Amino acid sequence: MWRDIRALRAQPTGLAAADPDRASWFRAALRQAEDLAVAADATDYATSPLSLFYAVEQAGQAIVQARKPDVSETAKSHGLSIRMSSGGLLTSMMCPPRLRESATPGRSGGFQDVCTTIGSPGLAACTELGRVS
Q1: Residues 6+ apart with CB under 8 A from 46
Q2: Separation CA 76–CA 110 (nearest Å)
Q3: ∠ Cα 94 99 103 (to 5°)
Q4: Which residues, in sequence order, are CB contacts of 30 under 8 Å at separation 6+?
Q5: Considering the chain, what is the average pLDDT of its residues?
Q6: pLDDT above 90 for 97
């Protein structure tokens, strides 16, 4: 898999193919995604999820650079949060930022940028991780 991704770094695709700035961002994001995935493979169960999360986030940034028409306003965060149980334990929920039960999430973050770019509706409410596909 990484060999194919390295080939994309050598020859960017989509909008990154014709724009040197996008190509630079695209290459850097794919390189960081690979580095973080390799690091996750070399660490234990307690730290590998963090590296994997950011590997996926960087892959998302590459998608945005290759496919999103307007990248003049880039995300300032990854765009997701988690909920803690009352006992301080992580629950299996993933939420758009600043989402209250009755609120509609706004556009903010890398996750939302990737969803918009690939035509996915994204998350409209807090979602159990097991239900995300």
Answers
A1: none
A2: 8
A3: 135
A4: 5, 6, 8, 9, 58, 59, 62
A5: 79
A6: no
CA distance 29 to 9: 9
Which range scores top for mean pLDDT: 12-16, 77-81, 104-108?
A: 12-16
Residues 6+ apart with CB under 8 A from 40: 47, 48, 49, 50, 51, 52, 55
| Residue 82 near residue 93 (C-beta atoms within 8 A) | yes
Residues 6+ away with beta carbon under 8 Å from 71: 22, 25, 64, 65
Quick one: residue 122, left, alpha or beta (phi over 0 = left, psi -120 to 50 = alpha)?
Answer: left
For 126, the token pair is: 């807090």
CA angle 42, 44, 50 (to 5 degrees): 85
Quote the pLDDT of residue 104. 40
